[in-house]
């Protein structure tokens, strides 16, 4: 476990809670988003490459923000979570209809949740990818509409939060539960361990 404090460059309360659970001292760093479309996907880009690139770009923006604001220099942890059904990326819904459409697509199918984590420190950068398969039960129209009225879908990739009421929908999960929540504990711990080993040299 690192003794140094780190930055968590994410506004996600779930990632903050997971770092607290891990016992990692950290400061939440809120970095202004870039102008234009939020995290656009490049033409022909796979979901895995997309999520890795997005986490890395968040790291770039966090490093630039720290320099611009003359903030203390600390290691920076960034992450991005993407829900993919085959090659289709299901982002954060912007409307009630989008949320219903995403949940309808996930109903009765197994999808992948990719969470990429990047750790930048001492001009070094290391990253890791967590991949988890999640199978949804068959949802009827009432299931979907009732869930959307809970307001849980908003701000979540794939329009659901596995740690909330959507847990009722999950038939099976293979991989990292915390990775689906937003920050894979094991993989994040491995990055922090590598940072410790590098600093000990």
TrEMBL record:
Keywords attached to this entry: Cytoplasm, Hydrolase, Nucleotide metabolism
Reactions performed catalytically: UTP + H2O = UMP + diphosphate + H(+); dTTP + H2O = dTMP + diphosphate + H(+)
Catalytic residues in the record: 80 (proton acceptor)
Subcellular location: Cytoplasm
Main location, first listed in the record: cytoplasm
Pfam families: Maf (PF02545)
Site entry: Important for substrate specificity: 14, 81, 163
Domain of life: Bacteria
Cofactor needs: a divalent metal cation
Keyword field contains Cell inner membrane: no
Enzyme Commission numbers on file: 3.6.1.9
SUPFAM superfamilies, per the entry: ITPase-like (SSF52972)
Major enzyme class: hydrolase
Family listed: Belongs to the Maf family. YhdE subfamily.
Protein's job: Nucleoside triphosphate pyrophosphatase that hydrolyzes dTTP and UTP. May have a dual role in cell division arrest and in preventing the incorporation of modified nucleotides into cellular nucleic acids.
PANTHER family assigned: BIFUNCTIONAL DTTP/UTP PYROPHOSPHATASE/METHYLTRANSFERASE PROTEIN-RELATED, BIFUNCTIONAL DTTP_UTP PYROPHOSPHATASE_METHYLTRANSFERASE PROTEIN-RELATED
Name of the protein this chain belongs to: dTTP/UTP pyrophosphatase
Species of provenance: Neopusillimonas maritima
């Amino acid at each position: 476990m690192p003794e140094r404090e780190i930055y968590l460059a994410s506004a996600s309360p779930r990632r903050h809670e997971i770092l607290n659970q891990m016992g990692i001292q950290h400061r939440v760093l809120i970095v202004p988003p870039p102008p234009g479309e939020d995290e656009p996907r490049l033409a022909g880009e796979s979901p895995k490459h997309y999520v890795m690139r997005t986490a890395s770009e968040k790291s770039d923006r966090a490093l630039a923000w720290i320099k611009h604001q003359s903030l203390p220099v600390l290691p920076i942890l960034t992450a991005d979570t993407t829900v993919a059904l085959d090659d289709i990326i299901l982002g954060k819904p912007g409307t009630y209809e989008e949320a219903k459409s995403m949940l309808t697509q996930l109903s009765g199918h197994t999808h992948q949740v990719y969470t990429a984590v990047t750790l930048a420190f001492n001009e070094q950068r290391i990253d890791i990818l967590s991949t988890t398969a999640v199978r949804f039960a068959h949802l009827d129209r009432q299931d979907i509409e009732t869930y959307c009225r809970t307001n849980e879908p908003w701000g979540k990739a794939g329009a659901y939060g596995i740690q909330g009421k959507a847990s009722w929908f999950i038939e099976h999960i293979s991989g990292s539960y915390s990775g689906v929540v937003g920050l894979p504990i094991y993989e994040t711990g491995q990055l922090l361990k590598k940072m410790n080993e590098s600093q000990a040299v």
